[in-house]
Design brief:
The chain has four helices and five strands. The protein is an alpha+beta fold and 179 residues long. β2 and β3 form a beta hairpin. α1 runs antiparallel to α2 and α2 packs across α3. 11% of the residues are buried.
């Protein structure tokens, strides 16, 4: 049985928004990006990488975020494969956050570990694993089972990164510059 709150949790909405609040006010809604622009992103965010050294890049967003990218073993930097795994875990966390916080409190501690080794000859990850660690000891068996069901459904339905990996995405590289 799915409750109204379960449905809100699956949608990522922890509680109904009151009229005139940020979630309920259409004037504060993010404008949709141009679907014909191949570099469009949600919220019209621009994303780019800048080379900062040999096999070193800084990933940036128009919102001011930065991430250092390098090879495996480069101190203070993520490898691209590590970022892929981090993105998967983060997406699962964000997708399940409302359900976890609703039932376990806003201060619930959650750790998501991610992993997966690259295929030795194919330069790809054949399998990625996530482990969401959260203390469920305050819940009885029925409440725990219900929460686990809602968490899995929320991730299955709303984790865009996981859904993209499962379905397989096409990629296109355009090299631009003067000739």
């Amino acid at each position: 049985m799915t409750t109204e709150q379960d449905a809100r949790d699956l949608a990522g909405d922890p509680a109904p928004a009151a009229e005139g609040t940020a979630l309920g006010d259409p004037a504060t809604a993010t404008a949709a990006s141009d679907p014909t622009d191949p570099l469009a992103n949600a919220g019209d965010t621009q994303l780019w990488l800048e080379r900062t050294g040999t096999r070193r890049y800084t990933g940036r967003s128009s919102r001011g975020a930065e991430v250092l990218i390098g090879s495996v073993g480069d101190e203070g930097a993520f490898s691209p494969g590590e970022l892929l795994k981090i993105a998967l875990g983060a997406c699962s966390g964000l997708s399940s956050d409302a359900a976890l916080a609703r039932r376990l409190g806003d201060d619930v501690r959650v750790t998501i570990r991610v992993g997966g080794l690259a295929h030795p000859t194919e330069d790809r990850y054949p399998h990625l694993t996530e482990e969401l660690e959260v203390d469920l000891s305050s819940l009885d068996d029925a409440a725990r089972d219900r929460l686990l069901t809602v968490v899995h459904r929320a991730v299955d339905q709303h984790c865009t990164v996981g859904r993209t990996l499962e379905a397989g995405a096409t990629t296109t590289l355009h090299v631009t510059g003067e000739r």
